[in-house]
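Worked example 2:
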Amino acid sequence: MKDTVIIYVISDAIGETAQHLIRASTAQFRLEGGADIRRHAFVRDAQTLIEILGEAKNADAIIVQTLVQKKASHHRK
């Protein structure tokens, strides 16, 4: 029996984009043990991200992230 692949989805929104990517990828490759997808949505601060990354590391998981950081910008006319 093969081990289950653990996949952490980390997003600053609902994580739907990453979820679609994972589904498309796993449909192309047969995972004999299956996939355990653990979605973490609305991650918007560093402390939460660090905690989730620690969990993923302990689980020996694959990480798929869709995080966008807005930078302050100055627009001159």
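The helical segments are 16-28, 46-58. The CA atoms of residues 1 and 42 lie 35 Å apart.
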